[in-house]
Design goal:
Elements: E1 7-8, E2 11-12, E3 16-21, H1 26-41, E4 49-55, H2 61-75, H3 82-91, E5 92-96, H4 105-119, E6 125-129, H5 136-145, E7 156-160, H6 168-181, E8 187-189, H7 197-208, H8 210-213, E9 221-229, H9 238-263, H10 272-284, H11 291-297, E10 298-301, E11 303-308, E12 311-313, E13 331-336, E14 348-353, E15 360-367, E16 386-392, E17 396-404, E18 412-418, H12 419-422, H13 432-442, H14 451-470, E19 478-480, H15 486-493
Parallel strand pairs: 3-4, 3-6, 4-5, 6-7, 7-8, 9-14, 11-19
Antiparallel strand pairs: 1-2, 9-15, 10-13, 11-12, 13-14, 15-16, 16-17, 17-18
This protein binds NADP nicotinamide-adenine-dinucleotide phosphate (NAP).
């Protein structure tokens, strides 16, 4: 649902100044600036638009613009067109400012007001907090005290990067502070997974294809697996990861969002709140997570040394900025149930980890087998029907079904259809941040997390975190390059199932 009220010539007015706190940081260079460049190429930037990047370091506008150009060269999905870059270059400004200095906000306001007058951006402002989470409150307080949070034009929006708190209590505290300055409708909590093409495609697949929606339930689906697997370790972000771990980094946000979209009921319409309300109901229907339940249904892991793609890599505790005795989990696998009419009895298995043997994010829907009476009777080759929604690195849908093997008289073989190979734009699909920034300008918050969703997912994650803190599982318990601890494999074997690595 779009919020921008003034519709000019039948189109939404996207004019705005995008103020990036953390304009010299990694996220801005690797994701935000390339996304803005690609939006320009796709004609998605408004006519009246500026980016003001804030950093502490002393640098001229030219120096900053050259750095942005280098980042776009390196990270953009499209090659740089000199004419387009020349246009974008003029729209990017650098403002040196230490955002802890609350006395400095009036000067920033004055700078933005003057820029707004020159650029005709209608007083519309988006504040993007691409900074470490401990600064979120500081900046929001500065904006509030500097009288910058209230809309001067149509709106004043706040974009918050993850992590949103580190547990339920801190998330509530943070949210309270944000709401003192901004209204809920103007707060955009980023979960960049929601900007990915295939995540948005989940609802399209489910609710525009009768053949899928008709069978999307516990009567025909045996189990659903959500895997977000990484080959990468923590790299230079050891200090961040040490505070987070796999539950906070991946489960509380990305996995819960994916789970909600896969399991939700059809919303009454496509309005933002209708969709978010159905997603929330899924989280609320998750079976009670007690320590007794977790004892049998969750596996934590931390990687030790190993070999990935032929290269020896260090264990987690040997990474930079990680204490030698760290108890942080880099892997988690879990079985859970959604206790509603559609899903009761169908397990959902979730798994995420670093330094695993394969990289990929996908959802596997395994359908129930037919009675073992006819074709499968004397054969070992029965394969279930599988529908795989590939999120990354391949983008598309894979479907497996059984057909007769034409080369023999009797065998049945699984046939695999994979649209990710047939997709002509594969490899150059829009980056999540392109879609997300565009939606922020349009005032469409469907792909961002509403507060009650965040609250519900923290309530869920908190129970797991508390249990993990008390568990005495011995780390490291999986080798880099493997698919996680043996217990994660046993979790499914105990149910006569297996993880699908399609
Ligand atoms: N990097 C990613 O891929 C990624 C992915 C998902 C989410 N995130 C989230 O995005 C946020 C930013 O991450 P990042 O990796 O981009 O961090 P980063 O590379 O460490 O950048 C931090 C930025 O904050 C600025 N900064 C720090 N203290 C400042 C101060 N007192 N006044 C003014 N500017 C200050 C730095 O500016 P100067 O250095 O110029 O002082 C720098 O631009 C975090 O919340 C992170 O969790 C990042």
């Amino acid at each position: 649902m779009m919020e921008n009220k003034n519709i000019l010539n039948g189109e939404y007015d996207l004019s705005a100044i995008l103020v990036i706190f953390g304009g010299t940081g990694d996220l801005t260079h690797r994701k935000l600036m390339p996304a803005i460049y690609n939006m320009l190429l796709d004609g998605l930037l408004p006519e009246h638009f500026r980016v003001v990047s804030i950093g502490r370091r002393d640098k001229s506008e030219d120096e900053y613009r050259n750095e942005v150009r280098a980042s776009i060269d390196k990270f953009s999905r499209n090659k740089v067109d000199e004419d387009k870059w020349a246009k974008l270059r003029e729209l990017i400004l650098y403002y040196k400012f230490d955002f802890r200095d609350h006395d400095g906000y009036p000067a920033l306001k004055e700078y933005l007001d003057k820029l707004d007058d020159r650029a005709g951006t209608g007083g519309n402002l988006v504040y993007y907090l691409a900074v470490a989470p401990e600064y979120f409150e500081t900046i929001v307080q500065g904006l509030q005290k500097g009288n910058m949070a209230k809309a001067k034009g149509l709106y004043s929006r706040l974009v918050i990067e993850k992590p949103f708190g580190k547990d339920l209590i801190t998330a509530r505290q943070l949210n309270k502070k944000l709401l003192e300055a901004f209204e809920e409708k103007d707060i955009y909590r980023i979960d960049h997974y929601l900007g990915k093409e295939m995540i948005q495609n989940i609802m399209v697949l489910r609710f525009s294809n009768p053949i899928f929606e008709a069978i999307w339930n516990n009567k025909l689906i045996d189990n659903i697996q959500i895997s977000l697997n990484e080959k990468l370790g923590v790299g230079t972000r050891g200090d961040y990861y040490e505070q987070a771990g796999a539950i906070r980094d991946m489960v509380q946000n990305h996995i819960m969002q994916i789970l909600s979209l896969v399991a939700m009921e059809p919303p009454v319409n496509l309005k933002t709140d209708s969709i978010r309300t159905e997603k929330l109901k899924v989280v609320e229907a998750i079976e009670e997570i007690t320590p007794e339940f977790l004892r049998d249904n969750i596996v934590f892991g931390q990687y030790g040394r190993g070999i990935i793609d032929g290269i020896e890599v260090p264990g987690y505790v040997e990474e930079g900025r990680v204490p030698k005795d760290s108890r942080t989990e880099t892997f988690v696998a879990m079985k859970l149930h959604i206790n509603n009419f559609r899903w009761a009895g169908t397990p959902f298995y979730i798994r995420t980890g670093k330094r695993l043997g394969n990289y990929g994010a996908e959802i596997v829907i395994q359908f129930k087998d037919l009675p073992n009476i006819l074709y499968f009777k004397d054969s070992n080759i029965q394969e279930p029907n599988l529908l795989v929604i590939r999120i990354q690195p391949n983008v598309g849908v894979f479907f497996q079904f059984n057909t007769k093997d034409f080369s023999t008289h009797h065998d049945i073989v699984p046939t695999k259809m994979d649209t990710s190979y047939a997709n002509p734009s594969q490899g150059n699909t829009p980056e999540a941040y392109e879609r997300l920034i565009y939606d922020i300008l349009r005032g469409d918050s469907t792909l961002f997390s509403r507060w009650d969703e965040v609250e519900a997912t923290w309530t869920f994650a908190d129970k797991i975190i508390r249990y993990r803190e008390q568990s005495n599982v011995k780390f490291p318990n999986y080798e880099a390059g493997s698919m996680g601890p043996m217990e994660a494999i046993k979790l499914l074997e105990n149910d006569n199932r297996k993880w699908w690595n399609i």
